Amino acid sequence: LENVVVPKQRKTFCPYKTCRKHTMQKVAPYKKNKESMASQGRRRYTRKQSGFGGQTKPIFRKKAKETKKVSLRLECTVCKKRRVIMIGRCRTIVMLDKAQIAKQNIGKKDKLYA
After folding, report:
1. What are the phi and psi torsion angles at 2 (to 5°)?
2. Phi, psi angles (nearest 5°) of residue 92
3. Which of 80, 86, 91, 107 is packed most tightly, with the most Cβ within 10 A?
């Protein structure tokens, strides 16, 4: 898939105890947080790397995929709880308002994910 057009707000089911009904939800692309330096894997890696001996673990260089799987973060406007849904692979993701989607003509390469 080339482009995916996603509305900034959409009405969808909120599964949490406070709601358990369809509500308006704010949509944003999911972004990974900064890696913690205190995590066990990071501590183990830095310990193994320290001292003489050069690079101890393999560095991945054979990249085969050209796209990444895109996830959306939905935030309920009623209970303010957030959840993440995966929409799959695509090259670009475009966040638009309802008005912008209406006046923009969606081409063959674009897909409207509402």
Report:
1. -85, -80
2. -130, 150
3. 91
Q: Are strands 68-76 and 92-96 parallel, antiparallel or unpaired?
A: unpaired
Q: Which residues is 25 bridged to in the sheet?
A: 10, 76
Residue 83 near residue 74, CB atoms below 8 Å: yes
Asked if 64 and 11 count as a contact pair (C-beta separation under 8 A), the reply is: no
The sheet with strand 21-29 has its strands ordered as: 9-14, 21-29, 68-76, 82-90
Please tell me the predicted confidence (pLDDT) of residue 107.
60
Residues 98 and 114: their CA atoms lie apart, in Å, by: 10
Cβ atoms 6, 96 nearer than 8 A: yes
Q: What is the pTM of this model?
A: 0.78
